Amino acid sequence: MPTETDLLSDYPSEVPISAGEVAAALRSSGRPPRIFVVLDDDPTGTQSVADLPVLTRWEVEDFSWAFRQGKPAVYVLTNTRSLDAPEAAARNEEIVRNALAAAAAAAEPEALRLGFVSRGDSTLRGHFPLEPDTIAATVLDATGEPTDGVVIVPAFPDAGRVTIGGVHYVRAPDLGEDRLVPVSDTEFARDATFGYRNASLAQYVEEKTGGRVPAASVIVLDLGIIRAGSTGGGATASARAIADAVAGATGAVPIVADVVTENDLRALALGLEEAERRGKRLLYRVGPPFMRARIGQDIRAELSGSEAYAGTEPSAAGGLIVVGSHVGVTTRQLGILTEQHQRAHIIGIDVEQLLGERSAAHLDAVVEEVVDRLAQGDVILQTSRLLVRTSDAAASLGIARTVSAAVVAVVNRTLALSPPRFVIAKGGITSSDVAAHGLQIRHAMVRGPMLPGIVSLWEPVDGPAKGIPFVVFAGNVGDDSSLAEVTRKLSSTF
Predict the structure, then answer these.
(1) Does one domain contain both 325 and 231?
(2) With contact defined as beta carbons under 8 Å apart, do 252 and 146 qualify?
(3) What gap in Å lies between CA 228 and CA 234, rounded to an integer?
């Protein structure tokens, strides 16, 4: 198993680049400001950014509201990771068309340029290549503009996911200092719906396109290119090297990039901006931190509990922690939380009962217990840890939808009867459904991270959840104590 030090020994050192340098390059590009529309396949993509609008609905008027906020990017919560392929494609197309329509209807459409970003999972799960293919085809049909290249950047250094030599890795400190595991050797690659065999991104592209795009045709921006300025010329030299490397991109060719640090992401941002200034039309398929670098945003310090409640009057009720994810790290985090937060009451949704004839009665009982216990303190609402498995991808999605619908029903009914002090949703699909349907959030602002670089806090700006801090907590990030740490910040009884 390789070490990060060994893998990096053949490459230059990183080029120090500030977020301000990226922001300045965007301002001096000589073109009207652009708004990136980020189609986020679950809400955890917001965990690396701050002070940006997020939508759970995507009518033209929703985009109009978001564009009026004057921010460089807007996140649209598509939740497509929970949909089958035809549904995911249809949703991507609808969102792109509505965003373009809202831009065209703006007071000064000539000054409102859009860029499109398909936010995927940093462990390579999701509808690829379907989603970027659909976005590219829709933009071409609606505007006549072809896509020259699809930039694929799954790296998420804050969460231990890095790409070196075109291979995507997960840091594994429990296996030894500095150790990296190819992502294809992790539990994520065995996902029932989105599994894969290859950690080499070029080979991953070939695998997922069924050979339509051979690995040899993929443009690889390795660290030698990303860090070209380390031997002289600095950020400018790196930007030019990256732009030169993609100069021949055409026909939506995939472009994969090495990233190990935030400086690498910023160098990439400068290089892609230069490529677009030269005329390249690019589409992005990326992990969470890419947009932070792409728009020249500084890394936001983690929010304190007092900052999370700023401008609001917290409810006297307890907080609601909803745990739906079943990956190993979530189960460990849940164990630490229940061990440390002994005043919290644990209430379970039994998946086997959900799939049986007593589903309605079971949910009624759960809601009654949640409301009763919130009057006394925090409640941990969890789906049973016994995962119902199936080898059929469609059946697996069906079970996930049933479970998610039950969680949504409990949260929604609880909100009407006893609004909680805060809500934490653990797991991507869980977070999406709790936000859009359980809490009925339509528009929100991303306040920032609750932990360094991960775990997003939303401020709902309308609807019944207005004033209730909502925490989006991906299932596959953080260490074993992270869930307890975030809960402690927000709880009045922990």
Answers:
(1) no
(2) yes
(3) 8
Range of the domain at 376: 305-490
Backbone angles phi, psi at 344, to 5 degrees: -75, 145
Strand partners, 219: 255
9-38 confidence digits (pLDDT tens): 999 999 999 999 999 999 887 777 789 999
- Residues near 404 by Cβ (< 8 Å), separated by ≥ 6? 82, 324, 429, 430, 433
84-93 tens-digit pLDDT: 999 999 999 9
- Tally of domains within the chain: 2
Residues 6+ apart with CB under 8 A from 422: 308, 314, 319, 320, 468, 469, 470, 471, 490, 491
pTM of the predicted protein model: 0.91
Instruction: Compute how many other C-beta atoms are within 10 angstroms of the C-beta atom of residue 487.
Output: 24
Query: What's the Rg (C-alpha) of the chain?
Result: 22
CB-CB contact of 264 with 223 (8 Å): yes
Tell me the average pLDDT across 125-130. Answer: 96
Convert the pLDDT of each residue in 283-322 to its tens digit: 999 999 999 999 999 999 999 999 999 988 899 999 999 9
Answer yes or no: do 402 and 459 share one domain.
yes
384 neighbors 350 (Cβ within 8 angstroms): yes
Q: Considering 269, 294, 319, which residue would you say is the last residue of a domain?
A: 294
CA dist 360 and 368 (Å) reads: 13
